C-alpha cells in the first residue's frame, strides 16, 4: 500500500513539473505559407496544372483552382484578407508535362487580376483554422491553344498576418488549352504517344486521360485490358469508315496504332 502511494505521489510531482515547464503558446500574428510537396523538384514551390482542352470547346471560358494555404505560429483569430503578388519568373523544369517554351501569364487575359474587386472579395483566410485554401480564377484565351503560360505568385504584406520569411515560397500555375501527353503515359500498353491518338482515346471513352486517369487505369489490370481492347476495336472500325482517306494518322503522317512498343 505504501509502495503504491509513493508511485502515485511521484506521478503527481512529474505532472506538476511538466505543467510548470510547458511553453506558452505564441500570441502574435500568424504566419501564412503555401504548403508544398517534395517530389524531387523545388520544395518551396507549389505547382498546379490546368488545361482547358479537357472541358471541350463550348461554354467554359474560366476555371477556378483552389490553392492550399496554411497558418503556423498561431491560429488566426479573425479572418485574414490575403494579398498576392504576381511576378514574372523563369519556367520551372517539368519536361514531362510542360513545354520548355512557356511564357508568363498576362493579368486580365489568362487570370483575373488579384487587385480586382472580384478577387479581393474572394481572397480570404478563415478564422480559427490552420489549413485553408484560396481561389485563383483562370481565363480561357485563344493564345492558350498555341502556348502554355505560367502564373507565378507569392504572398504580399497583410494587415493581420505575416508572410513566411522564405522568399522562395511561391505558387506556379501552368495554363494551357491544348492536348498534351500525360507524364505517366505507358508505351508498353498504348504504344508510341501522339496527340491524335490521345484525342482518339478521349473521344472513345469516358475519361480525359489525365495523369490521374492514367494512374487509375494502370493500377487495375482488368480495366487496363478493357481499354486497350476497346481502343484497338474502335480504331479498326474508325479506319474502315475513313475508307480511302484512312488509316488515322498523326500530323507528321505516322499511322495511329495501339501496338506495344518493345
Note the main attributes of this structure.
262 residues; alpha/beta; five-stranded mixed sheet; four-stranded mixed sheet; disordered N terminus
Would you kindly provide a written description of the structure presented here, covering whatever features stand out?
By secondary structure, the chain is α/β, with parallel strands linked by helices. The protein is 26% helix and 21% strand. The chain is built from six helices and eleven strands. The chain has helices at 2-21, 117-122, 187-190, 195-203, 211-218, 221-242, and strands spanning 31-33, 45-51, 62-72, 80-81, 84-86, 103-104, 124-125, 131-139, 149-155, 162-163, 170-176. Strands 2, 5, 6, 9 and 11 form a five-stranded mixed beta sheet that branches. Strands 8-3-1-10 form a four-stranded mixed beta sheet, with no helix packed on it.
Count of strand segments = 11
Largest sheet: 5 strands, mixed
Tell me, briefly, the overall form.
elongated
Count, helices: 6
**Gyration radius, in Å:** 26 Å
Overall mean pLDDT score? Answer: 84
Structural class comes to alpha/beta
Name the poorly predicted regions: 1-25
Strand content: 15-25%
SSE ordering: HEEEEEEHEEEEEHHHH
Distance between the termini: 78 Å
- Helix proportion range: 25-40%
Quick synopsis:
This protein is of the alpha/beta class.
Provide the fold topology.
Blueprint: H1 2-21, E1 31-33, E2 45-51, E3 62-72, E4 80-81, E5 84-86, E6 103-104, H2 117-122, E7 124-125, E8 131-139, E9 149-155, E10 162-163, E11 170-176, H3 187-190, H4 195-203, H5 211-218, H6 221-242
Amino acid at each position: 500500500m505504501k509502495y503504491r502511494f509513493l508511485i502515485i505521489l511521484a506521478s503527481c510531482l512529474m505532472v506538476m513539473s511538466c505543467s510548470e515547464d510547458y511553453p506558452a503558446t505564441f500570441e502574435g500574428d500568424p504566419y501564412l505559407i503555401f504548403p508544398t510537396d517534395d517530389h524531387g523538384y523545388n520544395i518551396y514551390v507549389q505547382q498546379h496544372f490546368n488545361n482547358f482542352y479537357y472541358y471541350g470547346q463550348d461554354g467554359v471560358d474560366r476555371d477556378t483552382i483552389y490553392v492550399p494555404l496554411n497558418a503556423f505560429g498561431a491560429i488566426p483569430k479573425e479572418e485574414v484578407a490575403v494579398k498576392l503578388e504576381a511576378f514574372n519568373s523563369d519556367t520551372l523544369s517539368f519536361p514531362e508535362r510542360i513545354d520548355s517554351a512557356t511564357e508568363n501569364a498576362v493579368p486580365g487575359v489568362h487570370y483575373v487580376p488579384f487587385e480586382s474587386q472580384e478577387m479581393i472579395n474572394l481572397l480570404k483566410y478563415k478564422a480559427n483554422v490552420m489549413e485553408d485554401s484560396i481561389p485563383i480564377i483562370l481565363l480561357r484565351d485563344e493564345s492558350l491553344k498555341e502556348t502554355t503560360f505560367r502564373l507565378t505568385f507569392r504572398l504580399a504584406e497583410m494587415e493581420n498576418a505575416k508572410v513566411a520569411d522564405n522568399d522562395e515560397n511561391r505558387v506556379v500555375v501552368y495554363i494551357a488549352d491544348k492536348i498534351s501527353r500525360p507524364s505517366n503515359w505507358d508505351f508498353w500498353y498504348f504504344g508510341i504517344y501522339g496527340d491524335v491518338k490521345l484525342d482518339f482515346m478521349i473521344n472513345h471513352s469516358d475519361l480525359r486521360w489525365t495523369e490521374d486517369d492514367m494512374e487509375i487505369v494502370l493500377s487495375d489490370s482488368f480495366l487496363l485490358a478493357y481499354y486497350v481492347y476497346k481502343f484497338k476495336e474502335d480504331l479498326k472500325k474508325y479506319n474502315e469508315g475513313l475508307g480511302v482517306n484512312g488509316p488515322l494518322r498523326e500530323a507528321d503522317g505516322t499511322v495511329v496504332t495501339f501496338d506495344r512498343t518493345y
